[in-house]
């Protein structure tokens, strides 16, 4: 029994359902409460209230952040035959608890060490003695050994660092350079890996195939069947001898083993897919400086001595010490367990692996990697748990439970009827002899007869309880996740892939998602004039040029690498930074010279709330310049002067209208406008000590405008088509950007988000500030109408998401910045950007869009809908088999005391239905037709009216034909040359063969529940064709060669033709069935509403 099912101790659980939850019973009876389009009137709201059932444990519409009590509750309510298999891909609640305990233990250990060190250091200061620190011991090519580095990082001892000569001394000991990093050639990297280890940790191995085989054994019904097979084997050999007596028991045992092996192989393949996806999730790409050049490498390739730049939202990739930083704050909650932001400077320079940069920027020297860090130890001690339930999985467990209880009741009834008929002398063998005669039949014969009856009843349970139904979700999700990787989407949370099919709105960023993120300066204003072209030096006064270059070189997080051999200049940084740096390089900026001749005193990192960033620079003559760069209209508002073409300061008041018009003109042409300004300052007004300097705010008024640049970021090719696809599919695309509203409007028109210029009025387009200032109720009303939000802060995005969700929308949100994390977390589906996204944003998201492209977001919607559609196909197929098999056996058992489908045959049907059926139907690729319908409501019934119609038509046909064969088959097939026994065997074989062929043909019908042509694209799905072909070939082998095992006889060509014709009729029958109209209101809803009303009137 799996740990997951270890919930029996939890009793009297309170009902804890997710947000906005109305309910139904067992996932079968569900209703849609959110209108896809806000303009549609909501009807029958009072009726919907009648459908609320707070006691339904399977009613979890949102498993993201669901409380453990809710998850325990549905597990307890599920009717399960094999818990270890059924709950394999759900969250292992016990393991999750153990994982948290291990984390807190390791964190506590780290804190005890630090507390002891601080206590010791305090004592040393009190006694005014200096601690004696061992000198660094050279090891191999390096001046310090692994153990000494590990000890320094773990103890975070500043005195040890000082003993080594500070960061500069340590850098020299590690043969690294504080500006250029390590050389980075293969030999150097290999030596460092050998001396200090790699940045990997031993992972716990995934389950082996044998473990999956063992878990497949755990099914209660299969264990009962094996026991029955063994008893039958012993009795058969005893009564009939070894040669003939082993067939009955042996065939059941073989069939059970086949089911177990096929199930284990399918499950094992799924687990390998999940392992590969997990490895991909952990493979973070980051920038390091090697040989003075910024290069992008995998986190696993980091080595001791590497120089790593850090910026807001980054994950600290390994243990290290701070080289330099400005306003650098680290969130150490992942290691300490406390959500406390720690400021890092030269007094507190130690950085721990696994922590996140909360604010500021800086650079660090790596001193410890992999298992030699606390993070590495933590990761090595806890296994990565892939378990996580999805809403559909929970609902299907409800469906499986409901069907299972019905199946168990039917099996019990069949058992009672068959036993009653057997012991009352109404059961006859093939030759017409009564099987049990009181006082004459031997005990062993009676036991054998009872075991055969019991085996049939147990096999009915195996067929009736659809264990594979909830697992089909995992199968289709695993398949979809693998295919989505090819479509540039990495799924971090399984449920998101499924929820995306219900998305009614996508709130998308502009930069990099709707646009290419390939920015270039195409327009520039400097010296009070427009530069044409933008890098025209002839119109710039040397003084203006010098100040522009100084401001750009110092007020940046980017870098410029000038090749010594005269090669191409390499510019790194964010796309905006790269565009401005490239423009300055064209203007003749010498990046390294400017950086070396002036010193940065204080930095105000770019802030998405203030939309600007600044820096205070000390010049060679001890003068101070404060440079600002940011959103053009915001920076312009803080300027009082500008530099003219002669380098003279002029009042800006007269020219403000000129600059504003320039900004508006550029924004109207979808250019991002950035202004660069500065002011002089007195050195003696700047705090001299470090603590005061950290708290000092850069003066941001009375600035002198130097330049305004217009940056072009072209719209992505194919975005307009992708937006159109979304609109047709009932998914509204909203643009949320920090850019100027005019720029946003121009891009929205270009992308097709705004249909026309007439739509570009408030509240369709709105500024973040305006939206923020509305009351909560007004925000909900306005949110539905918003198409474009400009100058929005991350908090505005969060408010928009909350307002939309309250109005019943299923919201997908894209985000790349650290500040987007709350909105990504709050949304139904958080989509982070793989290229520009920070690690904080990625960890808060559900899906990572690897190419930052909006078209990939639309593909995710397509896949989400495909998951739901595939599950519905499988449900329709499986329920048809269930209904037909149960009805045929029950009617035959009650009327004649015998069943036409025996245990081995039913196990083969179960294999077709569960494992092979799921593989064939759950892996259908998405089709374009999925995007021609409205989003799937999260409360829409799993079994729609269309599915009920298809299911009933096929099941009634199968039951009718097979019952005719069962009761009239002997007279139809009777041949004077054949004995009665042989005719009876042919009849039962024909029933079995026709039944299996009906399922094979019906598998095609299940592919397209709503379309007339069920063969569209069938040849492209090789897996489907392979499974159908393999099932047919195995059926031929079973009938023609394995008759002893399955108690069948060979059929002649006429009987095969008859079987094929019976199966083939299901195709035209499906077409005729689809002409039958069905009501729009789900049947489940109609019945439930009537039942609740009746109940209400009785209680009234």
Overview of the structural elements:
The structure is a single chain. The protein is an alpha/beta fold and about 1100 residues long. Helix content is about 50%, strand content about 15%. The protein has 40 helices and 26 strands. The strands form five sheets. Strands 10, 11, 14, 15, 16, 17, 18, 19 and 20 form a nine-stranded mixed sheet that branches. The chain has an eight-stranded mixed sheet with strand order 8-26-25-24-9-21-23-22, sandwiched between helices. Strands 3, 4, 5, 6 and 7 form a five-stranded antiparallel sheet that branches. β15 and β16 (about 625-630) form a beta hairpin. The radius of gyration is 36 Å and the shape is elongated. Mean pLDDT is about 80; it is low at about 1-50 and about 125-130.
The helix tally amounts to 40
Helix content: 40-55%
- The rounded Rg comes to 36 Å
* Overall number of strands: 26
β-strand amount: 5-15%
What is the mean predicted local confidence, pLDDT?
A: 81
Provide the low-confidence segments as ranges: 1-52, 124-132
Biggest sheet, in brief? 9 strands, mixed
Q: What structural class do you assign from the helix and strand content?
A: alpha/beta
Shape: elongated
Distance between the termini: 46 Å
